[in-house]
UniProtKB/TrEMBL annotation:
Residues 25-328 form the Aminotransferase class V domain. Keywords: Aminotransferase, Pyridoxal phosphate, Transferase. InterPro entries: Aminotrans_V_dom, Aminotrans_V_PyrdxlP_BS, PyrdxlP-dep_Trfase, PyrdxlP-dep_Trfase_major, PyrdxlP-dep_Trfase_small, SP_NH2Trfase/AEP_transaminase. This is Pyridoxal-phosphate-dependent aminotransferase family protein. It comes from the Bacteria. GO terms for molecular function: transaminase activity. Its cofactor is pyridoxal 5'-phosphate. Belongs to the class-V pyridoxal-phosphate-dependent aminotransferase family. It comes from Almyronema epifaneia S1.
Amino acid sequence: MDNKLMLMIPGPTPVPEKVLLAQAKHPIGHRSGEFSEIMAEVTANLKWLHQTQNDLLVLSASGTGAMEAGIINFLSPGDRVLVGSNGKFGDRWAQISQAFGLDTHIITAEWGKPLDANAFKQALEADTEKAIKAVIITHSETSTGVLNPLEDINAHVKAHGEALIVVDAVTSLGAYDLPIDELGLDVVGSGSQKGYMIPPGLGFVSVSAKAWQAYEQATLPKFYLDLGKYRKAAAKNSNPFTPPISLVFALQTALQMMKAEGLERIFARHARQKQATRAAMRAMGQPLFASDEAASPAVTAVMPQQVEAEQVRSVMKKRFDIALAGGQDHLKGQIFRIGHLGFISDRDILTVIGALEATFLDLGCDGFTPGAGIAAASEILTAG
């Protein structure tokens, strides 16, 4: 059946009908007073979502563009940085840092395991000369379904006193309680196609006063992603370059929906759906790739037994028109990933679990009782 595709991947995520319709409005001038009013509302609501009074800047870019902006605006060639890497996107931070000539020290953990906060503590305490200029962390590692211990790592950065903390919150912002001002996070980047419930195309960067001090000394080349330009324009509810006006319309509507739901309920919904998904996989005899203690609220990675991960994805897509994400790099073909991020309801979780049960049975998996996954998920969803 046409037009029944169900996205259960960690991005792009499903887009509400109200948001899709907002994009259909006729564009208006991006230098008009009407658009400035929209930008004022959007910026205020973005600060609400980010739990910050810092500058909140909107870029015409993907999440990777926001990540790159977080590097080039606050650092100089040769600066020493610590990069946490335990997945595809931690690796990307290291690649970006190395591409811009930074003295990049990588603290690694096995894919599927969280970063070790003590490793950062040791590196930061050993830096008696305060040469480390930034610590760069992927909060929710989308490739493995791991939520890294940002709060613990951040405490060690704060004890260091000099280093900035730069956070990739691409799949945690809007899914996990991340109080930027309370934690004192310096640079936080994210992307529109995740928890924001709109299509790809916008990047967001929160910048602290401490980061702006570093900006004044930073010498890496920049132009389009020069956040100083965005800060100056944002003070006038404007943009330094032509923005994707239709996406801003979409963002306005999506943020209104999020405010109506409320932060507490948004975070509780993501936590509940994560727990339900994980309980269902266990009831169906399917091992989870990340531990409960380190599980991301945005995505659950499963390493299936008795059947190949790509077979599961293929049947889910062909028979049920449900898209699941695959493994990346060396995990390709070994895991599949269920996204539960953004515009996902409890009904969606039950739908995907039911379809997975049918898929496993169709592929010959016999290690579970039919209905066990639905029962396990239902118990958590109804309790919530």
